[in-house]
Amino acid sequence: MMTLYSGTSCPFSQRCRIVLFEKDMDFQIIDVDLYNKPEDLAVMNPYNQVPVLVERDLVLYESNIINEYIDDRFPHPQLMPADPIMRARARLFLFRFEKELFVHVEEIERGSQKGAEKARIAIRDSLTQIAPVFARQKFILGEEFSMLDVALAPLLWRLDYYGIQLGKQAAPILKYAERIFSRPAFISALTASEKVMRK
Predict the structure, then answer these.
(1) pTM value?
(2) What is the number of domains present in the chain?
């Protein structure tokens, strides 16, 4: 059985929980208090961060790596594209999400007031830029829910919590977010700490 060490309010852990629930398989989630981490976490992950996935002798960390492994191991429903070209494009998207959006999360959660404000603006502007995509299609890669939607969902869930206000031009992205939030796996993957992040 797979065991996921997951932070109850960690957006990266939320990604892995969503994938596990989408796959509807047997797994165990161990909630990690981010302010009082268990000692063995640093042994499993040299960066002493969640999420960490353990399956027998295999120990993985970094949410995108964990999620691709789960997707390869349990291919139904498939969340990464089967076609190598589309898969490479999907990985590029995931890389860009980290560099252009999620890189700012730490600053909002733990940075200075000035740094957090700059981070909010950067996220707002990046999301506004990609919003037109969602006026034309249901999900990032078209009609099918994919790993890209999984990767973006925790940030969209936390917009109010992080104090990020999107303008009218971003309306399609908010409608898209509601489509993701209504998925049974997304709802099942929410922790009590995450449920209270949205009014």
Answers:
(1) 0.96
(2) 2
